[in-house]
Amino acid sequence: MQSVSEKMGSRWNIRGHISLFAKMNSLILILILPIVLAYTYSNDVTFHVVSGELQSSSARQLTFLSGQIDSRVSQMMDFSLTFSKDPNVQDFNGLNLWGDAYDRMQTRYAVQEKMVLQSGVTDIWPSRYTLHSQQNHEVISNYSRGGGYDEDYLKRNMSTRWSYGDEENSGAPSYFYWFYTDSLGEQGLLTGSSLVVEASFSSDNIRNMLDTYKADGKGDPFYYRKGDLPILNRTADPQLSKALVGYLDTNPIDRTAQRIVKLEGQDYLVSSVGSAYLEGQLIDVVPLGQVLGPIAFSRNLFYLSIALLFVLGISASLLLYRNVQRPIRKLMNGLLRVQRGDYSVRLHARSRNEFSFVFERFNEMSRRTEELIENVFNEKIRAREATLKQLQAQINPHFLYNCLGYIINMAQMKEEDAVVSMAFNLSAYYRYTTRMEKEMAPLEEEVRLLVNYLDIQKLRNGRIDYRIDISDEVRSQEIPRLMIQPIVENAVIHGVAKSYASGEILIRGECSDGFCVIIIDDDGPGLTPEQYEALNHKMNEELQEEMGCGLWNTHQRLIHQFGSRSGLRFGPSPAGGFRTEIFWESEFF
C-alpha cells in the first residue's frame, strides 16, 4: 500500500508534469481567443451589414428600373386611350360613309402626324402605334406595315394584356404589343365597326434600360418571363444567364423577392421585381464573391496570421518544455523514486547545461544513499538471522526431548517399528536442519524435510493427517532453507493440535503467471476476519516487541530474496481453519 506521502507525491508529480506547459498554452489561448472572437464578431457584423445593404440597394435600383419601364408602358396605354377619343380618329372610322377623297386624305394625315409626334417624344423609348378601322378595313401606322389585321388575330389579342412575340405578318419576334378598343364603354369588345388601337415597342427598349442599369451597378440584369426567351443586356454572360434561366424555370421565384443561389460553384444574389403591365420579372444577378470578396480575403488573412502566431507560440512553449519542464519533471520523478525507496535511480542529461550539473549531484547523492541503505539493511538481516538461529536453538532441544521421550516409551512398550520410524525421521530431520553451509536449497529437499517432520508429529499424535500436492515445476525451484517448515509447524501447533477431533494439513504448490505459490491449509480453529487483516498488516510494518519474529522474518526473507512482490498472505481456509500462502516471483515462468 502507498503511504500518504507517496500518494501526495504522485499527485504533485502529475500536476508538475502538465503545469508549466499547460499554463503557457493556456496563456497563449487566453491572449489569442478574445482577439479571434472579437474580430469574428466584428467581421460577421460587417458582413451582414454589407450584405444587407447590398440586398437593399439591389432591390431599390431594380424597383426603380421596373418603375421606369412601367411608367413608359403606362404612358403608351394612356396615349392609346386618349388617342382613341380624338375627333380625327373618330372621323377616320366613318370616312367611307360620308367623306370625300380630300377629307379622307386630310384626316389620315392628321392622325398619322399625331402618332409620329407621340412616338418621337423620347429617343430612349421609341414606340409604334397602329390605328385599325374595323368598319373601313383600313390601317394607319407610324411605321411601315403591309395590310390590315385578320379578324381572328384581333379577337385572340383583345385581352387587355400586353403580349410578347410575333405580330401578325410583322416577322418581328421581339416586340411587346397591346390592343385597345372601346365599344359603347366596354373595352375589348369587337362589334364589326370598332376602332382598334395597337401600341407596341421593341425589346431593345428594355435592353437599353438594362444596359444603363448595369453601367451604374455590379449586377447583370435581364427580363424574364417563363416560356419566353429572356431579354439580356448587351454585355451579359450567356453561360451564367442560361444557367440562371434554367434554375428559374425549375425553381420559380416570387415576383418581388430576393434569393441567394449557388451557380457554377459560386453564390449569387438574385433579386426579382415584377412588372405591373408586362407580366414578367426584372432579374438582377449580383456575384456575392465579387462584392464580399475583399471582406472574406481580409478575414482569411487575419485567421492565417492568428494561426501562424499560434504555431509560433506553441513552438516556443514546446521548446521551453523540452529544455526546462522535461528536465524538471525527470528530476521530480527521480526524487519520488528515491522517496519510495528506489535508490538505484540515475538521471542523464541529453545536453550540457545547468541541469546536467544538477543531475550529476543527484546521481552522487542517490549512489551514496543506496550504499548506506544497503549496509544498514544487511546489518538488519544478519541480526534477524542471528535471532532466528537463536530461537531455533531454543526450540529444537524441546522438540528433541519430546521425540526422545516418545522413543523411550515405545521401547518400553516393545513397539520396535515405532521406535525405528521415529529414530529414522528424527535423524533425517536433524541432519537437514544442521546443514547451514548453504542458504538456498531446492524445494524438493524442503518437501522431504516436511515429510520427516509431519511423520514425527503423526507418530506422536495419531489424530494428525496430512497431504502434499506440489507440482514438479515448484519442486525444482530454489528457496531459502527452512522457509516452509516453520509455517507447517505453526499449522500443527496452533491448528490441528488444538482440536480434539482428527486434524488434517493440506500442502499444495503451483506456478502460474510468473509466480510460484505454496498454500498450507489446516482445519483448526482459525482466526476472525479482523485478526487476519491485522496479521497481514503487521507483515509490512517494523518488527514490534510483542510480535513473533518467525512469520515476520520469513516474510522479509522472501522480499529480500525475490523482490517486493513476494511474501506471505494469511486468510481463512476452505477446510475451516487457517491458510498461509507463500508466494514469490519466479524468473522461469
TrEMBL record:
Residues 322-374 form the HAMP domain. It is a multi-pass membrane protein. The keyword Aminoacyl-tRNA synthetase does not apply. Keywords: Cell membrane, Kinase, Membrane, Phosphoprotein, Transferase, Transmembrane, Transmembrane helix. SMART domains: HAMP. It is found in: Cell membrane. PROSITE patterns: HAMP. InterPro entries: Bact_2-comp_sensor_kinase, HAMP_dom, HATPase_C_sf, HATPase_dom, Sig_transdc_His_kin_internal. GO terms for molecular function: kinase activity. Gene3D superfamilies: 6.10.340.10, Histidine kinase-like ATPase, C-terminal domain (3.30.565.10). It holds the Pfam family HAMP. It comes from the Bacteria. Its main location: membrane. CDD domains: HAMP (cd06225). The chain crosses the membrane at residues 20-41, 301-321. This is Sensor histidine kinase YesM.
